[in-house]
Every structure is written in structure tokens, then in C-alpha cells.
Amino acid sequence: MNMGNVSERRAQPPAIGVSVVILALGPAAGVAPAVGTGPTVGTDPTANNSATANAKKNTLWIPLVRRVRQPFLGDWALPGGGLRADHSLEQAAYAALESTTDLHPRYLEQLYTFGDPSRSHGGLPMVSIVYWALVGQAETKDFAEADNVRWFPEDDLPTLAFDHRTIIDYALWRLRNKIEYPDVATKLVGDEFTLAQLHGVYEAITEQPIDLANFRRKMLASGQLEPTGRKRREGRHRPAATYRYAPDTTGSDTTAADAKHSDWPPFARRRESFQPTGDGHSPGSGNPSDRPDRPDHNAALAALIPSR
């Protein structure tokens, strides 16, 4: 099929793709994680001592898929694919996950639409509609391990295809602006959790050490948690009391954008080259009045999170 010259191709309607960012507190149980920065990463993860060290700290993990065709042959990418005429956007997102990772998150949320005019695939303009999900350990049990599918810690990602690094950074920024919403924790650790598990969520999302004793004291004094009357054993430690969020703190809507674009990104990320494009189709743009501020029901915890 003759697609014409470059200018003619650029004038064509954009292709539409759907990608998914999955975030979890750890790799799927029994699956060796991968770390590194090259296209051959993940071929022998059991030989990588750094992976074991990363798995022991509170870190967010992301499953990636190695590309087996051009462009970016051999690089890692987010699970995704083109939008079929008989699929809704959400169906396309689930289909992309099923064909690569076999993950079935209970809840998918549309993250953003990336449509910078410079984005292209095969010479055609490309619009990517990105979904994201937070998944707990129970949801990762069906993860399909394969040579071309691996879990990576978010602070040690490999070389990524297309602009997927920007997409992941935006997802992480959104998540850090959602940390004050109770359902962020429950999606990662379940409706019932120990204070140690909740502490792990906060450390993983903020990428900062938080004093456990102070965290316990602040959380118990915040009025957000109520004891379940049950206990849970974690590893070799003695059973710990479990809690859940009190009913009046669980109604926050996390589907809206949560911060004004002038604050983006609010964290001094280690990736200094990462900048919003502000082109009207990418993170950082939009009407600030359409972006409600975060709720203040968890403001008492702000002092626990070191500023960057």
C-alpha cells in the first residue's frame, strides 16, 4: 500500500493505540524480577544479585514486555496494542494485558491520552490512550512468566521504547498525588492491612524512608483507621493487628486529576531530563480549574514524608 511521502503521511488521521501501566508493591510471587538498562535485560534474572536486593525494599514494580519487532526491536515497552474496531477502549486495555502478562486487574482507570504531534508509528501520527491499575499480590498470582515479559523496579527501569518512560513517570507522579486517598493503599494491600503493610505503601510511593514508630502513632491518631479485631502473621514476626479505613474516609474520588498543572512535577525526580511538554495533549496541560486539589483528610501525615 502506497502511503505517500512524509508530509502526506503526517496529514493522515492518527493511529490509535492503547497501553497499560501496572503498578504493584512487588513482582508476582515466585517470579524472578529483572533489573538493568539494556535490551538483553531479563534473560537470566536469577543471576542478578541487584534484583534480590531491590525486591527486599519498599519499591513499586512494573511489568514490561520486550518488543520482538521494529521499531525498537529488543527494547522494553508497556503492554499495549492497536485499537480494534470491535473493542471499546477498556476492552482493548484488558486484551493487551491478557495477551502479554495474563494479568486481570479488578479495576482499570484511564490515565491520560498522549497525542503530541511529534508522536508517530510507522510514519503515521500516533495517539496513545493509556490506562493504569494498582494491583495487589493476590492479583499477580496469574502473571504469565515468559522470556519477553518481566517485572522491573520503577527506580531501575531498562531502556524503554517510544515515549513509554515519560508515560511511566507521569503515572508515578499521578500516584504520588493520590497518596492521601485511602483506596490507593487498599488497591495495593487489600481492604484489611497491618500498619507495617500500610507503612510499606507510603515508603514505596514516596521513595522516601519514613520512621515506622512515628507513622504508627500518626495513623492511629488520625481517626482514619479502625481495628478489625483480627491479626495477621507476616513472615517470622508475631501476628500483627489488622485495620481498615473508617467508612467516612473511603469516599474520595480518585478518577479525577489531582493536582494543578503548575505544580507538575511536585517531586524533584532523579531523572532531571524529564519535563512536561505542555502541548495540550500531554501531562501538564489543561485547565487548572478542572483539576481538584487533593483532600485534606490525611494532611496530618504530611510531616512524615520528607520533602525533596
Automatic annotation (TrEMBL):
Residue ranges annotated as coiled coil are none
User: Which segments carry the region annotation Disordered?
Assistant: 223-308
For bias type Low complexity, the affected ranges are 246-257
Care to name a GO molecular-function term for this sequence? hydrolase activity
Bias (Basic residues) ranges: 230-239
UniProt-listed InterPro entries = NUDIX_hydrolase-like_dom_sf, NUDIX_hydrolase_dom, WH-like_DNA-bd_sf, WH_DNA-bd_sf, WHD_NrtR
Residue ranges occupied by any Nudix hydrolase domain in the UniProt entry? 24-176
UniProt-listed Pfam families = NUDIX, WHD_NrtR
- Bias (Basic and acidic residues): 258-273
Protein name, per record: NUDIX hydrolase
| Lineage, opening ranks | Bacteria, Bacillati, Actinomycetota, Actinomycetes, Bifidobacteriales
